[in-house]
Amino acid sequence: MAKLLVIALKVLGLFLLGIILLILLLMWSCAAPSDASLDRRFLRHRSELEALARMAQEDVNVIRVADDFTRLSDDWSWPRSESRWGITRAKWNEYRRLFKTVGVTTGWEKDEMGNVYFIAHTQGLSVGGGSKGFVRCFGSGGSEKAFLPCAEQKEKGQFQDNTHPDGCRYLRIAPDWYIFEEWR
Length: 184
Description:
This protein is an alpha+beta fold.
């Protein structure tokens, strides 16, 4: 009976160790990519990112393209009929191909100044989480609507309002290109 109890405890111990290792692996795989890894990705895929930025600028009324939806500046509803996507099916498929190649897991979003954010990582919810990726600055000039790195044109910076937990951090990786990280 004592041998059976020892074997059962060993099996239980191995099972618990396996669960702990699985949790640690999941935590590691869900972590945001480092700035260094994003910088390497940018260097490997700059031409694809430039193509994505040009495509986003061509689609003037489109403010968001993801793998599974598009958003227009005047129509956030989804689903919509294909004639109201704002882009053709062929262009959407090209976006998806480039997203996969570059590792932009959540697509892109465009702000009011035309700056394009390529979202490589997200965590949490829209009301409390964060995102990290690349931003291609097209609009700056000190506007209150311009994203901080695009307006400031500094090598790096961080902003966090002391009245709430929202903030952002950025690092220039090329002229008009930054790694950004936002949290809320």
